[in-house]
């Protein structure tokens, strides 16, 4: 049973058939306002520099203040600084590997990659980390998070016919009912589009009785904005491509890593099922669904905490994993725009590389 669901969220989950009087944006912002990640809250750079200037003036006089004040004159630089991560160090691949003494280079297939040391808030590896790319089923991480925050884990969710109409076959049936937590687990481990749509439809109905799935997608985007995921934008709750040229969601490797970090810190039970090879999950009528993890590396990553795969024609192969590089030392690896099989080898190489860097 999931815990630590704020009181407001439990109240909303009990009012499944009531139409909120406020707008979706007001409802969602209120719902999430207490959950903002402290690591993403920063004092604006200009304010920091002005405080520094005043301190220097008091301690050293005006001589050392000039340089600091000069920094205040360049808006573009300070804005760029304000929008960057709080990470203190970036280790490029060649430098890090030479430091670790294991290899001369990291070779990966992915278009973009990001390796993040959660405890030290340090970038261990970055390749096109902020390039906006199709997310495919990595979208379901946000779907599961927002549904978790809106709907109580013991709520009953009915699979609508519109969910069964989604691409892919996950063995669900129209009218079948699930405990919300079990449906979320099934959705993530097997990457079920039916399950993701059903979660979105049920949680969206809490926010608005009309067009619940579309309303839920609005909530996903509001949540992304609240968490500072500046390159992320959702168009549906599954990540399925909308057409041959339009993806169902876009985001960056860095954003995805920060989303995984947030889930690890604030709702870790969401990911627990995804560190298993397979699972048995039953509907409320007792129908047992045997599901297998779509992450082929789940048994190859020692200390894995959670993972999520993604693949569509537009996205190529995507994969996000979190693992303990050592005792209580979580590291997140994200690759985007790889191939179907390449994403797995990419993540294995990068996880080995991360252990190597951290051990130095």
What does this protein structure show overall?
By secondary structure, this protein is of the alpha+beta class. The chain has two domains: 24-36 and 130-358, DD-peptidase/beta-lactamase superfamily (Beta-lactamase); 43-85, no CATH class. Helices cover 41% and strands 17% of the residues. The chain is built from 14 helices and twelve strands. The strands form four sheets. It has a five-stranded antiparallel sheet, with helices on both faces. Strands 3-7-6 form a three-stranded antiparallel sheet. β11 and β12 (330-338) form a beta hairpin. α2 (24-32) crosses α11 (212-226), α9 (180-190) crosses α10 and α10 (193-207) crosses α11. It is globular and about 55 Å long.
How is the secondary structure organized here?
Blueprint: H1 7-14, H2 24-32, H3 45-60, H4 65-71, H5 75-82, H6 93-100, E1 112-117, E2 122-127, E3 133-134, H7 139-150, E4 156-158, H8 161-164, E5 177-179, H9 180-190, H10 193-207, H11 212-226, E6 233-234, E7 249-251, H12 253-266, H13 269-272, E8 278-282, E9 288-292, E10 304-312, E11 316-324, E12 330-338, H14 342-358
Antiparallel strand pairs: 1-2, 1-12, 3-7, 4-5, 6-7, 8-9, 10-11, 11-12
